[in-house]
Structures are given as C-alpha cells and as structure tokens.
Amino acid sequence: MNNEGQTAVKSNPKALIPIIVFLVLYLGNGIFFEYIKPAEGQMGFYVVSVVLAFSIALIVAFLQNRKRTFDEKIRSCAKGIGDDNITIMLFIFLIAGAFSGIASEAGGASSTANLLLSIIPGKFAIPGLFVIACLISMAMGTSVGTISVLAPIACAVSQNGDLPLALCVGIVVGGAMFGDNLSFISDTTIAATKTQGVEMKDKFRANIKVALPAAIITLVILVVYALLNNGAAIGDFDFNIWQAIPYFIVLILSVCGVNVFIVLLIGIALFIGVGIGTGSLTYATALSSMGDGMSGMFETMIVTILVASIAALMKENGGFEAVLNLIRRTAKGKKGGMFGIAILTAFMDIATANNTVAIVIAAPLAKDISKEYGVEPKKTASLLDTCSCIMQGIIPYGAQLLVAAGIAGITSMNLIPYLFYPFLLIIFVILSIVFEKKTITKQS
After folding, report:
1. Can you tell me the distance from the alpha carbon of 406 to that of 400, in angstroms, rounded to the nearest whole number?
2. Residue 315 to residue 311: CA distance in whole angstroms
3. Rounded to the nearest 10 degrees, how much is the dihedral formed by the CA atoms of 187, 192, 197, 203?
4. Considering Cα of 352, then 356, then 357, then 362, what sign does the dihedral take?
5. How far is CA 310 from CA 10, 327, 426, in A?
6. Residues 113 and 149 sit within 8 Å (Cβ to Cβ)
7. Which of 45, 165, 380, 437 is positioned for an S-S bond with 30, CB 3.0–4.6 A?
8. What angle do CA 209, 213, 214 make, to 5 degrees?
9. Could you tell me which residue, 235 or 140, shows the higher pLDDT?
C-alpha cells in the first residue's frame, strides 16, 4: 500500500481488539494452565491451540466495521494472504519441513554433533558444546530440533565430566538460538525476510554484526571457565561421517547466498542418497519422514494465513495507524522507530511463546514503521528475527527451554542464569540501534 493509502486511513485503536482477544485467549490460558493450575506432563502454553486463538481473533475482526460488507472483508483477507512474499514463505515452509524430516531420520544431526564432539579435547567440552550447537542449528535451521539432539549429549557430557548440568544444557540453548537466528533455512529467517521483501544474504549481513560479537564474548567466557576448571573424560560418541557431510554442504551453500529453494532441495537429495547408502533410510522411511516434516509445518502455515488475514483487516480499520500514532508520540527519528520494532517484536514473542508466530504478527506493523522512519528493510528483518529469538531463548515457558529442561530433568528456571548468549545479544541489539548511522532513507 502506498503512502497516500496509508494516510487516508484514520487511527482507530478499537481495530486492535482482535489481537487483544488473541493475547487474552492464548497468553491468559497459558499462564493459567502453566502456573495456576498445571497438569502433570502438560505444557500450559499448549493447552489452547494457537490456531484456535487466532481463528477466534479473526472472527472478531470480521465483526468489526459494519460499514464494510462481508464480501469486502473477504477480499481484504485474500489480498493479505495473496501477497507475493506470504506465498513464497508458505512454499519455503513446506520444503523446509521436508528437509528437516529427512535430515533427522537419516541421522545427520546426531552424527554431525558427535563428529564435532569427538574432535574437541575434554577440557574444552563446555565451549565445545556451544560451538557445536551454533553450527548444528545453522545447518538444521531449528532451535528446538538442535536442542532435542544436543541436550541428551549435554547431559552425558555433564555426567561424564562432572560438570554443572544446568550450565551444559543452558549453553546448548544459547547456541541453538544463535543458529536459529542466522540460518538461511530457519523459519524465523524465512518469515523475517519474506515479510520485509529482502534477500536472506542482506539480512544475514545485518544480523551477523550483532550476533557474532555476542557469540564471541560468550565463547570467551566459556573458554575462561574451562581453563579455570579441570578437564575430564566426556565419553565416546558414535558418528557416521557420511551422514554429517550433507549438513556441512547445506551450511556452506547457505552462507554463499545460494537460493534457499535450491539449498533445501540439494539437502534433501543428499540426505536421501546418504541415508539409503548408509542404511539409515529406506525408500519408504525417506518418503514418510519428508511427509512428517511437512506436516509439522502445517500449524505454522495456517497461523501465517490467519495472521495475514487479521493484519489486513486491522490495517484497513485503522489499527496499524493507531500503533504508528503511539510510536510517533514516543519515538524520535530512525532510532526511535528501530526501538519500536524491537520492543513490538519482543512483546509479541513474550505473548505467543513462538518466535515465528511473533514475527508474522509484528511484521506488517514493522514494515509500516520502517517506511515511516526510514529504517532499511534488511535492518527491520534483522530486528524482527533477532528480538524474537532473544525472547524465545529466555522465556521459561517457551518450547526451547521446556524441551531442554524436560530432557535434563530440571526446571526451565534453572537454565536462565546460564543463557549467556541471549542476554549478551540484548546488549548488542541495543548498541546497534544507539550507534546506528544517521542516514535518511525514507522508503516509498
């Protein structure tokens, strides 16, 4: 929508009611079932389906603005869903799901992790786990998948090396969030770049300036810890080097800026060949694992469609303009706009406990803010991805910490003091905004 179209829409805070309804349903029930009335073996924030909560919010959006007919509202939703970037994002989600499924079934992640761990001296097991988590998550494109693979290994390292369990598992979570934030095949990267219409390599370049310093300082802290403590045997871990090779190839191709569709398809082909060649896959399991992986993306895709519809209606009803007016009253210049995007994204992740969903919700508003304040799209995409991953790696009720804590047999709160990387990343995000160059790049 052009600037003229945007200024013609009057500010209407009531248009934001659908998102408030969603937050009450999802966040409210999540808090109730997680902390007030928890059930054994049940994650409170997964009692109410995010799809159900957004569906009810969409119904509320349709009930607003009775001056417009039902058919007009449907056309607005169709335009939101039919956006080029939304369509591309949905297709990539499907292929990424197939890649994740077959890579996991072929044993690529565990072999890669064990290969790297076998190279690292026992004394440096702690910093080694962080580096491995960074590399595995970069190659896999999923933090939860990385944690699921590495947390049991971290537990074994802790036991064999007489190292603090919460520390070993906590640094795996931090490393997993590093890769989730930067990986070219991560659903957060896909969502952040496609909603802002930028190339993944451009977002990566903007992102690495913030993420790499935080990761390096984290690694230095862990190396110092390792040097101050005695080393110990960390055990032997089996691996198949052939099963690890496809991940390294995918990682190299991604960093080189090869189109994500091509990278994922090459990765799938390599894992099929290696899996069948090493006996970890059969023709039948290859097909079923890809199908399972794609099915695992269905919820994310449905949420994307629902959020695109809700956002289109809220925008036409003046909800976005109301948020922009709030930011105009509090933000000063480009840096203020960037802080607005960062805070908006962080809040959405706290509310949804899902970094991809948080990005999809915040992205349309972030795009308007970036146009209003002259923030480069690649910087907006970087802020969306980074801030959502920061909060997702810290909140104790998010899937990442809950999965890690469940595997380790401790509470998610025990891990928080050892999340060095996410906390350092907050500092570098703030610094990147404060020291942003004062350039005027108003977007048309």
Report:
1. 10
2. 6
3. -100
4. positive
5. 18, 21, 30
6. yes
7. 45
8. 115
9. 140
- Per-residue pLDDT of 163-204, as tens digits, reads 889 999 999 999 999 988 988 888 888 889 988 989 888 999
Can you give the pTM of this predicted structure? 0.75
Please give the helix or strand (H or E) that residue 236 lies within, else none. none
Domain-wise residue ranges, the chain: 3-434
DSSP one-letter string for 245-281: HHHHHHHHHHHTT--HHHHHHHHHHHHHHHHHHHTS-
Q: How far apart are CA 306 and CA 360, in angstroms?
A: 10
Asked if residues 135 and 116 have their Cβ atoms less than 8 Å apart, the reply is yes
Name the 3-class secondary structure at 170: helix
Query: How many residues make up the chain in this entry?
Result: 444
Q: Which of 247-256, 333-342, 379-388, 432-441 has the lowest average pLDDT?
A: 432-441
Selection from 200, 204, 203 nearest residue 96 by Cα? 200
Instruction: Please calculate the CA angle 421-423-427 and round it to the nearest 5 degrees.
Output: 110
Angle CA 387–401–384, to nearest 5: 15
Q: Which two tokens stand for residue 6?
A: 């945007």
Distance CA 263, CA 286 (A): 18
271: left (phi over 0), alpha (psi -120 to 50) or beta: alpha
Task: Pick left, alpha or beta for residue 199 (phi over 0 → left; psi -120 to 50 → alpha; otherwise beta).
Answer: beta
Per the structure block, which two tokens stand in for 327?
A: 């930011």
